Amino acid sequence: MPRSDPTYIGQVASVTGAVIRVRLREDMPSTLVMIGGESYRVGQIGGFFRVPLGYTNLYAVCTQIGADAAPPGSAVGSFVTALEDVPQLRLSGYRWMSVVLFGEALGGEFERGVGQYPTVGDEVHLITNDDLKIIYGWAKGKKGTISVGRIAAASGISADVSVAGLVSRHSAIVGSTGAGKSNLVTVLLETLSDTSLPNARAIVIDPHGEYATALGDRARVFRIRPNEQVGERPLWVPFWALPFHELQQLTLGGLQPNHEASIRDEVLDMKAAAAQQLALPPPPETLTADSPVPFSIKKLWYELDKFERVTFPISQGQTDANANPADEVGDASQLKSDRYPAASAYNQSPYKNQRKRNIERQLDLMRSRLKDARFSFLFSPGGGYEPDLNGVVQNDLDALVRDWVGHDKPITIFDVSGLPSEILPTIVGTMLRVVYDMLFWAQDLPIGGRQQPLLVVLDEAHRFVQEGVDTSAHRTLSMIAKEGRKYGTGLMLVTQRPSEIDSGILSQCGSMIALRITNSADRAKVSAAVPDDLGGLVDQLPSLRTGECIFLGEAMPIPSRVRVRKAQQKPVGDDPKLPDVWQVTPRPDVNLYRRALANWRAQSTSAGLPDNQQEQEMQTDA
């Protein structure tokens, strides 16, 4: 191609892997070039360029422009020439550009990745709209793509996302508060749940309760205190699904290793006895204290409490057979203790239990947790998931997971905003572990993850996979990040603080979707996790407009700056409509503060007041 071609802008000066240093032509009168009646800017960060190699065109994206982009040790052109009067020499030392190869096209067919590299002296050309149609034509007419908006550099081109790349390769959505994360997540979920993907399956962990209103009839919503009038369902997480260590930390707190081991054995014995009453009893040798087998935690408390309180008429050779009878027999179902003759402070009968563990404080905590209404979803779940004193349940975990992900709607929203914050990572980790394990062991069945993949969307991810913090959620999500791809479970992390996310989990994300980020530590973490050699594009993040994002990785094979469309229904977390609500909207009725107090005490945004009290308020207002 002759160098008189108006798209010609320079030559390859050096090649380091996928990074190419380009020396721009010195006789280019302006960075604004007119081609075919349309204007193009040379040297725009994130702009595309073409390197023709015979019948093949390599495509690259600009990551750096100016003197700093010159090859190290370059002796070409002194920067002093910027002050020369001769136009051909002016700024010659600054006319450098770094670009990163991302794909190639042969015969109009674009393919991600490159099979050959340019060499010194090869020409570099601007990208025209015809080239953009080739680059973004990879998704045209292709199944398994969804549109989330428009390419910012070419408003007429749809921004199409690969469903396979988004789900199976994991992804991370990062951006500062107000940058448009909730809108982007809502748009993605809207598109995943439309009629083109009737069998999609996704779980959303929603710590702020903002997605239920945005997704409407597309989702089944679970929350601690559901609004049944709009079809929400109660969220139950049976305590017996928790691993022993997590259950111990929730109920008893820290224990001495020997006491922990003995209580673990007691739990195992209770699970082994209850397992024989299941519809399909597991082999006894496979059972551990961590097995998701129902048992009565109230009975466990009762037996542990009894062990601390029992007294004996003798100090040596104490056994259950020679213990003092109880003065008052308690009730395990009511968490009522046995009463025994008080142990003497002197060396005489009645004697205290010589094997006593001295865990009265821990048992008081356990009793308090079991009676705490905030934890009733865990220790007293409805729906037939609470075991009786013999460990018998009406419904098992299969019914629970079927209710969670086996329904006919494509999206399941777990609104965990009502969960106590101190146990949130534990409960979320347990829920995801139950679903993941169920799908893992169903991998040869039609409901398994390989036959019907599952996408897990984790909002406020920094609360669950924080760097250096070991929680149930961290362990479960780390396992999904490392192994989920093979078993059909994808992960989407959504966070405003990527600097707090575990580096190992973030590195497993094959796609990075970055909105505006102003914090330097967050940008550095994103840059380190960006796939390929495209970390230079992260420098654009502070200047992105609200709703704009940069797609990098498997979800969109071409690194692109995208203008995301508005969601059909705004999530609750969207910004207030200022200044209208301060200018036009009248001040609300002050009596509504009473209703807000009722909601607060009931831990529900829709608790309201008794009907007769509401009628009285309405009459008063009138």
Overall pLDDT confidence = 83
User: What CATH architecture of the largest domain do you see?
Assistant: 3-Layer(aba) Sandwich
Distance between the termini: 82 Å
- Low-confidence runs of at least 5 consecutive residues: 75-86, 609-622
| CATH superfamily annotation of the largest domain | P-loop containing nucleotide triphosphate hydrolases
Radius of gyration: 32 Å
Shape designation: elongated
Estimate nothing, just give the exact number of structural domains: 4
Total beta strands: 23
Per CATH, the class of the largest domain reads Alpha Beta
Task: Give the key terms.
single chain, 622 residues, alpha/beta, Thrombin, subunit H, Rossmann fold, 4 domains, 12-stranded mixed beta sheet, 6-stranded antiparallel β-barrel, elongated, disordered C terminus
Please provide a written account of the structure:
It is a single chain. By secondary structure, this protein is α/β, with parallel strands linked by helices. It folds into 4 domains: 8-139, Thrombin, subunit H (Beta Barrel); 158-238 and 393-517 and 528-564, P-loop containing nucleotide triphosphate hydrolases (Rossmann fold, 3-Layer(aba) Sandwich); 244-375, no CATH class; 580-621, no CATH class. Helices cover 26% and strands 20% of the residues. The chain is built from 17 helices and 23 strands. The radius of gyration is 32 Å and the shape is elongated.
